[in-house]
Amino acid sequence: MRLPIFFVPLLACVPTAIAEEGFHLYKFPGHHGLPSIADTGFTVHQPDRVQPERVEPPCLSAEAKVGAPSDAIVLFDGTSMDQFRDNQWKFRDGLLIAGKGGLNTVEAFGDIQMHVEWRTPDPGPNKSKPGSMGNSGIFLMQKYELQVFDSYSCEIYADGSAGAIYGQSPPLVNVCRKPGQWQSYDIAFTAPVFDGETLISPARITVFHNGVLIQNNTEIFGPTRHNKALPYVAHPDKMPLMFQAHGSPVEYRNIWVRPL
């Protein structure tokens, strides 16, 4: 089994002031009375669940891209969409832009290391739909969502924040950049293991957002879905990745995967 290799290109910088203009300008509270999340003591999208602490992201070059290791499978480098199935997304100026429906990879994956860069729209959310702007997601095995969201502008329910295992586990901290700025996820994902229909071990995930650890070998409690807490159902050892379109033109670039 190959081990993940993480690259975090930092640049020297001067920290900005604590007060950040436009931070959590909008609120999108959660919902009462939804199902419990395993044995965590929380319910899905619980409104009073503590928000992740704000940590200002380290200074990274806005244009610098993390190169792929020699053994990586490059899913998108700005030149073509050949690694994806037929879709209704846009390919413009070397970027993938969320359109309608899911964007699924041709190849199927199990345990992986993954790098992806994303950018939410600028301007950010509007007053009428703060929960839909800058909203997307990365579904490991088409089932387990790592949330993509403008958590700089909008304070959404904690388990819907950028870097959350959607509907389950908020990120350790909120390290989101402003809308219009490039962000990165570096992911190490361990697929669930089944013996027939029986779950032997659950999926787990470690995530760095903009170079900061936000999920640390976090257990995934089952497939993720809005307002739901779903049990595991046996599925193949390898399945495609899926990028979610959620009514917002979130942009992606520089996506690569290393099977582990």
Written overview of the protein:
With 260 residues, the protein is mainly beta. The protein has a single domain (32-50, 71-259), classed as Jelly Rolls. It has strands at 26-28, 53-54, 73-76, 88-92, 95-100, 103-109, 112-119, 136-140, 144-148, 154-156, 173-174, 183-190, 193-195, 198-201, 204-209, 212-219, 224-225, 228-229, 239-245, 251-259. Strands 3, 4, 5, 7, 12, 15, 16 and 20 form an 8-stranded antiparallel beta sheet that branches. Strands 6-19-8-9 form a 4-stranded antiparallel beta sheet, with no helix packed on it. The relative contact order is 0.26.
Q: What kind of assembly state do the chains in view correspond to?
A: single chain
CATH topology: Jelly Rolls
Shape: globular
Main beta-sheet strand count, sense and barrel state: 8 strands, antiparallel
- Distance N to C terminus: 6 Å
Radius of gyration: 17 Å
Total of DSSP H or I helical runs spanning 4+ residues: 0
User: What is the count of distinct domains?
Assistant: 1
Strand content: 35-45%
What structural category do the secondary elements indicate?
A: mainly beta
At the first level of CATH, what is the class?
Mainly Beta
How do the helices and strands follow one another from N- to C-terminus?
A: EEEEEEEEEEEEEEEEEEEE
CATH architectural name: Sandwich
Helix content: under 10%
Strand segment count: 20
Q: Which residue ranges are poorly predicted, with pLDDT under 50 across at least 5 consecutive positions?
A: 10-18
CATH superfamily, by name, is Exo-inulinase, domain 1
Overall mean pLDDT: 91
Domain 3-keto-alpha-glucoside-1,2-lyase/3-keto-2-hydroxy-glucal hydratase: 72-258
GO molecular function: hydrolase activity
Protein name: 3-keto-alpha-glucoside-1,2-lyase/3-keto-2-hydroxy-glucal hydratase domain-containing protein
Signal peptide: 1-19
